[in-house]
Amino acid sequence: MRIRNSYYLIGRFARAAPSFLLLLCVSTVKAQGPAPETAPPLFPGGGLISYNSIFTTRGLMPGTSGGVPVTAFPTFSHEADFNFTWGFYRNFDLAVLVPVVTNHFGSGNAPAVGGTGLGDAMLLLKYRFYRRDSERGTTQASVTFGPKIPTGRTDLTDINGKRLPASLQPGSGSTDLFLAANWTYTGLFHLRRLVADEDFHSLIRSQGTQATRLGSNIESRLWLSYRPYESKNVAREWFLGPVLTWLHSQDERIGGVNQSGSGGDVLLAGITTYAGVRPGMHVWLGMDWDVVHSAGATFMPVRRHISFGITQQFRMHR
Hints:
With 318 residues, this protein is mainly β. Helices cover 0% and strands 54% of the residues.
């Protein structure tokens, strides 16, 4: 929920929280985060806990009829993300993200394989380096960085007890670097309730389990949101608007050998709605669909993506 002057007035609710930085332990599209604006940090001395449920389906690679290819990603996955964030200083916040991941891969008449386990945790620091207020609204920009830690499960097997490929495991077994830049522009086209929010981030991967280096990725997510409703005390708000997402992933490397055609590009379009339901609590729902994607030999593009979540903000003592 976006609350004005939340950095200075504790009695009002924080309008900002960190970008949800869920991504992208398994290279899926980023979900809507704990707040409609990704650039502002959490207010000083504030905290939040957040839950996000993310469902993703992927298309099969060309020619897949049975068995599990070594570069296969889940045809269906669910990620339950638990987020704790602390606004420990003005313009700074610290977020801990812990995912629980369920992956399934199915092709043709072959039985689906997969399972559930703890995913790779992330520890992320956000710094807002720019803020400018005007009659039109507020412009803000921030950077976020931190490690993805190999806490996730990497021992899922198929029905014959054979270990599944690294790309189907809840964890990667690698220590990776997450980098993000976020920009929020309020008052687009001089409409006070129209906001453009851009999240641009990358996960730079290292080699992990099964001598596999999953492809590093880049994602750009632009959301244009409009508030059709805002209560007088700003305790309740409703945001709604279209989302456009571009996702690029590099080829995987297994045993030092590049798996040509396993990476590619996807453009998704969708819609997200976000609402404050009571003081300090808000919920969201987002849906995205594949518009166009590259046709790599073993590339599995995201076809559908649905996420919903809930966040509770509170005041912490320092």
